[in-house]
Structure formats: structure tokens, C-alpha cells
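tool_log.txt
---
The assistant was asked to compare two proteins side by side. It first ran the structure predictor on the initial sequence, then on the second. Raw inputs and outputs are pasted verbatim so the downstream comparison step can read them without reformatting.
(1)
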Amino acid sequence: MAEGLSRRVFAGWRGLGLFWVLVLLLLGGGGLWLDQLGPPERDETVAEAPATPEAAATPTAPAPVAETPTPAATAPEPAVAPPPGQAEAPTPGAPDEPGPVAEAAAQTPAAPAPPPLDVPVAAPDFPPARPIAAPDPALLEQGRFGTLPRVGADGRTSIRAYAGQFDRQDTRPRIGIIVADIGISNAQTEDAIRRLPPAVTFAISPYAPRAAQVAERLRAKGSETLIGLPLEPAGYPLNDPGNRALLTGRSSAENISNLEWVLSRFPGYVGAIGVVGGMRGERFAAMEQSYFALQESLRNRGLLFVDARPGVAGPARAWGRAVDVILDEPATRTEIERRLGELEAIAKARGSALGLANAATPVVVDRLVAWAVGLERRGVVLAPVSVLIRRPPETAENRTQ
């Protein structure tokens, strides 16, 4: 019995050995067969790996989408005549009729060309003007916040001492342009001083951080300057003209103090204009007594006054006038050009006109430069604001002085 069991065990091991011999023979034969087949053919459409480290570091651009070749780009292959009696086979990839995508592309209209960009108008060579005289100590007095303008002992005033150059014998209609809020934006101020003609009048903001330096540059250019007056506007306090404004709710002493602060910001200007930040003091002007007192204070210091509200009668107690047209509300190219044309029409009808721009924005400066180039050919002349002022109406207060 033991001998039979041993035989069965030996037969099992022999069978297992034969199984593994067959497995090894199959594996070896498969390897030889694969070796005979050789490596797979390379796919030419797959990009090879870069051969250098520099190339490996460079990202591979995505392959462009294949476009249908046009006859001009790809020369057609010579046609081969088919055997007699055999129909001509269609060319692969070139259907006789265009597909729906090609038809849609052909019917889609071309996109319109973008509009041309506005190119800033180059600064033309406007005739230079003589520099404005330096501040005269005889026309200044010391105040609480600095020097203030005054009438000289010989009767001289700032209106005449710091007036811009102009031929008063010129009989053509006169147009004055005031650009306000000068000194707030350095870039806009620099652009306006460099490009605008000297006959333009510049109103420097009392809140300008370097008002005296800006005024000095404008005197060297030959341009008249005004100081902007912050007066209580319509919509106050939502529209806030600043902490030094003259307000209807403040006492007379407070308003006088704020006026002296404003007038002491820099010397050498011909007068004041009631505008700051596009606000024109409508509510303060409605208080007739306070408004007259302001005008008389300016006149007694030898200064003119420009009322920034278009269409009003003009100052009743000071040398000056009111603005006729606001040029930049809204500040668009078309509207500015239209209002400049309106200003010319007023000048030709009345002999003079005065326009106001609230700020020296790029579009304002561009349009003023382009407009001023051909102004004299149209029969009008640009003039400083001091040339356009009017005598205040005769009143009892004026006659007693």
C-alpha cells in the first residue's frame, strides 16, 4: 500500500514538472516571435521628444487645426485618365458640393473695421505772448493767512498790472476762454499749460497743493490767472465745495475769513471766478446781500469778478462779467465742438463772448487746441478775460466812492 502511494506522488510531481516545461517553452517561443516582428512603426504625427535640455524646457505649441488648402496655396496633382469604360472616381477629401459649415462661413458677413482712435491734437505754434509781470509788493498787504491783493497808493490795480497781452485796437469779435480747476491734476495742468494758447485764462483752484508754482509758470507763459472761489452750490451739502467755502449758513465773519484764506493762496492774479469742481455757487448767489458784499470786497482790492452762472446779468458791484456758455457739460467731443460754435455765434452777434470749461480734461484741451488753430480765419479773436470785463452798473454805493 505504501509502495502504491509513493508511485502516485511521483507521478503527480512528474506531471507538474511537465506543465512548467510547457509554460517556459511557450514564453520563449512568444519572445522569439515578437523579436522577429520587430518594433512597431513610428507614428509620424506624434512629435518627437526634444533632444536638448533647452528644447525640453520649451513648451510645445499646440498643433494648428488643419485648414482646407486653397488653390493658390496647394498645387493640384495631375489628373490621371481612367481606363476606357470606367467612371472617374471622386477625389478623396474633396467633395463636389461644399458642406454646411463651408456654406455658413461663406454667407457670414465680414466684421466691420474698428473705429479710428482719437489721436491727441499736436500743440501748434501759437504766437508767444509777453510774460505777465511779477507780483508787485506795492499791490500786496499782509493778512492773517499770507499776502492779499490791494489797490496801490497810486490807484494801480491787479486787473491792469497782471493783464495779458492784447491789441485793444483789434475790432474783431472777441472770445474769452476760462479753464477752471487748474492745479488739482498735475498731468492735466501740465498738458494745458504746454498746449493751450496764451490768451486762454486759467482759474487756479484754491485747493491746489502747489498753486503758487503753477501761477508762476502761467505768468511766464503770458496767461492771465484767476483764483477759484468756493461758493455754496445748488444741492449742498451733497455737492460740497470744500471746508473753505463761503456758505449761507455761516456768519459774515466766517465767510470773510474764508475769503481771505482763498485770496492769499498765491499772488499776481487779475481776479476771481465763482467756480470750484464744477460747482458755481447758485445758493450763495441767491443771498443778494452776501453776494453783493463779496463783489464789493473784490472790487475794493482791485480785482475783477466772473460769475460762473451762464445767462445771468453779471456782477452788479464789481468789474467783471458772467459766463455765456459752459463748454464741457457733458464733456464729450461733439458737445464741446457744438458749444464752441455757439460761443462764436454769440461773439459775432454781441461783439464778445465768454466760455468756461470746468476742468482741463484731455478732450477739453484737444478740442480747444483744434478750435483755436483756425479761429482768426473765421473772423474772431481770442482774448484774455480782462479785455472782456464791464463796468459795474452805477449805484448809490458806487457813486459815493
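(2)
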Amino acid sequence: MENNYIIQEITPLKESDCFYLAERVKDSFNYPLHKHEVLELNFIENGEGAKRIVGDCIETLEKYDLVLIGVGLEHGWEQHDCKMENVHEIMIQFPSDILSESLLQKNQCSSLRRLIENSRKGISFGMKACETMKSKIYEVMNTEAGFYRLLKLYDLLYTLSMQDDCHTLASGSFTHSTDDVDSRRVKKIEDYINRNYKNEIRLNTLADLAGMTPTSFSRFFRLRTGRSLSDYIIDIRLGHAARMLADSTTSIVEICYDCGFNNVSNFNRIFKKKKGCTPSSFRADYRNKTRSRMARQQAIKKKDLTHKKKEII
């Protein structure tokens, strides 16, 4: 099954502009799953109860929601349990080269480099970070359009890059992305896990690859990736499982064992804990979206054909 229901959005951002900024107040979430070739910073206020989908990650919104979405990463919002009628949204879209590659390699921009790298999976900022960043976002909004507004955006992105109250969303295997981490040892370990996620992966094997003791390696891996080794391996396996659930008709039992899990009940429990739903619900949700998207496309085509016939007559 192909994910052809995902809209490839052509954004309003012009090649001659550094970024595009939009503010709106709405009473519903009705824009379908989509992706685009620019980064997007999206701030939502009063959206409690709505669902946010980024890759294979589905989360429910609280009072504030602030996410940074990377290039080509599918995302969208659904009404779900949101009852608010005054949802306030501020969206800033900007190209990946707003910060040049040579600039990002400088020591002073290391945090910005990590921010852009992590945006490939999507980054969600917690309530504490939202409270901090809200004023920065409004500063960008309230600054007169031009060079000084661009400086405010740079300041906003840098402050975002220094926030600890955040987490990545989609799994790397689902987004077909890899992290450009600083450590060659971590990259070597990541490559090994990506090649062997279907099999049992032993701590001692990975520690030997890194040339470290198991205890030192575990501490090193957590410091460099922000996750424990076991969590990282689980996320990789779940990412592959989510992709198979979305793209194939393979049974859940087969997917479980093919992705390195040793029993179905354990797979179901971990999947629900991490994704917020069971594997069968995840697959059904994607298929429902596919059918809805195809129905909308057919309705649009039918309407266009009817319009053309009237013009001919």
C-alpha cells in the first residue's frame, strides 16, 4: 500500500524570501496529512484535545503545542476531542539553507546544527519550553517585516536549540532518515543496529565495536543520543514495524517477529506504550485516512469533470 494520500504541499514561501509567516484563528482542524520541501515551526494555542501526527508519532495537544517539522516529513492535525472555538495558530516556514552548511559547522552553531538535524524526525517542545518561547514567537510576529524580523527569527531558532524540554517524534526508520551525529563511534553503532535490528543485539557486541567496556559504552551512548541503548533499539524496531503496518498487508504476527520482537504480546504492549495505540488500530487509522483521501480526490475529479462539461455545453 502506497502512502499516496499524503499531499505534497506547494508552500507560499517564495524563492526571493527567507521565510513565510502566517497567523490564523480557527475553530477546527481540517487540513489533511501533508509534507513540503521547507521546514515549519508551528505554534498552537488553545488546541487542547486535538491530535498531532508527525510520521508514525501521534500525540494529543495540550494548552500549547510547539513543533519543528523537517523537510519532507509528513504531518497533520486532527480535530479528535478538541472543543475549542478560538484556536490560535502561528506558522513559520523557512528553507533548509536559511542557515548555510558552512555556518552550521562552526563551533558557535553546534546547537543549531543539532536542531536542524533533529527536525528530520520532528521536534516537540514541552509546556515549559512553550512558555519560554511564546514571547519570542510574538517578537517575530510584531517586528516590522524585513531584515530585523529575520534577526528575530534567528534569535528564536537559537533559543529553541538551547531548550532541554523537548523530544523527537517520528522514528528514524519510518522517516528514512539518519542522524549526522558528531561521534564516529555512535554512527558505527547506529549502522550496526539498522542492519541487525531483526536479530538479537547484545550490549557486549556493541561495546566491542565502540572499543569500550559495556558500562562506559552505555553511559557514552546515552550522553551522545539522549536515549538509552534499549530505547534506541526499540524505536528502530517500532519504526520499521510502523512502516510495514502502513505499507503492507503483512500480518501483525509476522511483522512482530520480522522486526526483532520475541513475542506478540510484548510487541503489542510496547507499541501501545510508545505510539498510543495498538498495531491493529495504527493500521486501521492509516487505511481510513487512505480511503478518505481517495474519496476526496475522486470527488474533486468528479466536480472538475462536471465543471468542464458545463463549459463545453
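---
observation on (2): The chain is about 50% helix and 15% strand. The longest helix spans residues 279-312.
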